[in-house]
Amino acid sequence: MTIAYQLYCSRNWPLADTMKMLGDAGYEAVEGYGGVFEDTGATKALMEENGLSMPSGHFALDLVESDPGKALGIAKALGVTKIYVPFVMPDARPTDRAGWEAFAKRLAEAGKPVRDAGLGYGWHNHDFELADLGGVTPLELIADAGTDLELDLGWVLRAGKDPAEWLNKFAGKVTAAHVKDIAPAGEATDEDGWADVGHGVQDWGAIRAALDAQGVDHLVIEHDKPNDHARFARRSIETVKGW
After folding, report:
1. pLDDT value at position 41?
2. Domain 2-241 in CATH: superfamily?
3. pLDDT digits (tens, 9 = 90+) for 183-202
4. What sections of the chain are H helices per DSSP?
């Protein structure tokens, strides 16, 4: 089991402080994103100093499409073995089924150099990929086109779906999962309604059973807007390790 921490959670704190905090909290892995890829040497040094690895990272679609060599170079420098494309801006999102089918094919095509290099490749969802297109969702079209998934369980719930059900729906396609919790309605408004893992409303018993059933053993702890990242990191890893 790999338990990682998405470094984007701590974007408002110095990276050196974050890495030390994570090492002290018992983490052994992190997940990178664009901001920590700018100086791979410095990032790698901080990881090594604090006993951390980076098995996965979030890479922009523009980078993967336009300069796969650069993306692969970053991955190699940091030890990344799974590249996930995490987002597409609202003005670039398709608006109908045909558009999403074309996007799904484009996304799969962009991943060919990554897969050819022997790395994993997938899409990380938010909630907009779970909109109904008339009996199918964009996320299903993406998976059907041949791209694996890093299923964000928090955004699945935010979209009004059952995370355990959707883990089972995508059997064999989920190569990592974002472990993310939601506060009860009206709480944690200063944190956009997100909660520390195990301190929200997610049904972790059902989710854990689905993760086990699908053999998903790469978990990434995340909170989009913690007001205290050390508290979030500590309480969340305590929850997940307690499983």
Report:
1. 98
2. Divalent-metal-dependent TIM barrel enzymes (3.20.20.150)
3. 999 999 999 999 999 999 99
4. 15-25, 40-49, 61-66, 68-78, 97-110, 112-116, 138-144, 153-158, 163-169, 204-214, 229-241
Q: What does the domain layout of the chain look like in residue ranges?
A: 2-241
**Any idea how long the chain is?**
243
Residue 90 burial (C-beta neighbours within 10 Å; 0-12, 13-18, 19+): exposed
Query: 218: burial class by Cβ within 10 Å (0-12, 13-18, 19+)?
Result: buried
- C-alpha–C-alpha distance, residues 61 and 123, integer Å: 10
How many Cα atoms sit within 13 Å of 116 on the Cβ side?
Answer: 8
Q: Which residue has the tokens 């470094």?
A: 7
Report d(CA 102, CA 99) in Å as an integer: 5
* Cβ atoms within 10 Å, residue 144: 13
Cβ-proximal residues to 56 (8 Å cutoff; 6+ apart), any chain: 4, 31, 32, 80, 81, 82, 83, 84, 120, 150, 176, 218, 220
Q: What is the pTM of this model?
A: 0.97
Question: pLDDT, tens digit, for every residue of 107-151?
Answer: 999 999 999 999 999 999 999 999 999 999 999 999 999 999 999
Given a contact cutoff of 8 angstroms between Cβ atoms, the answer to whether 131 and 137 are in contact is: yes
